[in-house]
Known about the structure:
The complex is a heterodimer. Chain A is of the alpha/beta class.
Amino acid sequence: MKTLKPIILSxxxxxxxxxDSEKTEQHSDTAEIPVSREMxxxxxxxxxxxTPVGRRKAKxxxxxxxxxxEEGELTDGVKYVYWTFGGSVPGSFIRTRxxxxxxxxxxxxxxxxxxxxxxxxxxxxxxxxxxxxxxAPGHEKTxxxxxxxxxxxxxxxxxAPVGMHIANGMYGLILVEPEGGLPQVDKEYYIMQGDFYTKxxxxxxxxxxxxxxxxxxENADYVVFNGSVGALTGDNAITAKVGExxxxxxxxxxxxxxxxxxxIGEIFDKVHVEGGDLINENVQTTLIxxxxxxxxxxxxxxxxxxxxxxxxxxxxxxxGALGMLKVEGEEQKKIYSGEIREGxxxxxxxxxxxxxxTNEIVESEIPAKSFxxxxxxxxxxxxxxxxxxxxxxxxxxPNAFPPLANSDYLNADVDRAIGVVVNGLSGEITVNxxxxxxxxxxxxxxxxxVANVLTYVYxxxxxxxxxxxxxxxxxxxxx
Amino acid sequence: xxxxxxxxxxxxxxVQSLMIGQTKDMVLIEGSRYIPxxxxxxxxxxxxxxxxxxxxxxxxxxxxxxxxxxxxxxxKVISLFADESYLVNWKTDLKVKDSMSTKRPITYVSWFAAKxxxxxxxxxxxxxxxxxxxxxxxxxxxxxxxxxxxxxxILAWYEAPRTEENSIGKTKKNAWGVxxxxxxxxxxxxxxxxxxxxxxxxxxxxxxxxxxxGSAAVNATDxxxxxxxxxxxxRGSLKARYSMKxxxxxxxxxxxxxx
Lengths: 479, 259
């Protein structure tokens, strides 16, 4: 027995070294990579990723994924019913290596209303597994596939109506590492962009249903990272320390939009273009197609908050496609100084700058077509321009601004009234027996507007019911 | 085993012949021609006159059925005819959980069980075409498919959780006088599995299978398709022995059966 032990030990060592030599051996046909032993896959919800595969051998990898239809928050006060892989948007991150035999079980929760399936872009087979995984609520389906090509792949639901299932959040990423694994980095994160379409406008509160029409029109209300506005900001920001290398696994679930992924204040040292083998270096913005992905790597040199955006910039600042990477550590003044000094810059001398003004009056684009419209437009002008002095009911303000209601001065002479509006008036006048001495400025409004507002005044508050036309106004202007 | 099943079926048939076809709580549906989401042989489908249950079958009614036909009780049901989920929310063979209202629509029943229930009442399950024909109606119109609010109501149900716990008859009565076709539970149909949605639903539109009068995906001008699409998708994902939490049924009857 005693003599046996070392023999077994050395045998084991020899077997191990055989295993080691196999790890380094590159298989030309990945379909032939042998698998040994089973392993339950570690699945993570965003922004986290599972442990790197490192130098492990190909295994039979058990992936169990549950589909949940559940209400969540798209942004503050806006609720949305998400359909999810594993309870998060994007769905759980799956990490494999080339040659793994993945045994995939898709479970559709009994509380769900709808059937679902999964199409993994990493699968070589019909529908990417969709036809083998179509599953009714309260059931599960299992299928298995071999990972033949390294890369970062999107998975998504492909049950009709396909667009709606994706729009509701049914997408995620599956990574297939090359033999021997990807090079080590300090920090890895999982980010996925998606566009959302709601019945209400961006920010409209309450439970918002999905809007098929907007989705078909590709008119997104929200464009977000990781399923909701603010999923990667504030306390949810991803973090790193100065000097660390960061690798982001970035996907785009769509359903419609293409992402121009950019980190403000950083340059990607390395990009696995479209998640494949092609490496591009020193990249500012990388394009990620809908249903595609990219791996970006960069070293963070200085502390601060770095903003992740879709550089179709209104999506970032108005629709939610904005995340944060907070970097802590020592200032690196050699690389970035911060503000050094502030001074005054006056290229045009120290004179007072005026906004350029124009004496041209824009003519109203839609002339009134009837007396009713004249009244309607006239009231609008009155409320914008005259109401402050002459008051809502034309009563004016005693000792300051004359009344327009029952006004003898107004009703006596229509051309004079037009002239007052067009040219202004100053000096003493008597209205309804009261003396007024103030200034009315020249009104910068079009002839149409003058006609409308005077028609409104003449046909309100007991005045003489005159109708003023554009021609009457133009005639007064020509005098 | 086989003979046992056969004799039970025979018994059921004998009892059925003794029973008078019940028409309580049924309404007449006047048949017509219409274009469903899927045409099968031709795009226009003809539906004959028939009667339909106003409400889905309730839990109380199903308890009576199981009392009468113990072979459909949860302990005795043959696994060929119902999967493990059959009546999974019942406490015993004849009792539901105390917290459960018996006014709920019966769910967790297989297609075989639903079919037997209807047949033992001298009725049958509706065909997909019959069911869809009646379900086109809203409260006022017999074909409301073009109305946006009709579709919105259907779609809102997809986002409402645990509706199977509601009592029957709480939704609005449609133009035929039928309740709960939308907004409560999915319902079994006689030929649920004849529709061509396979697991790979994107491939279906390439087949020459009369989908959408040829082959096109859901188009933007016809949101009706997209609300209805989900019903076809759920039907396509079912097998006859499945019993599901939010899947119930109701029965229909041919006019000639009522003499």
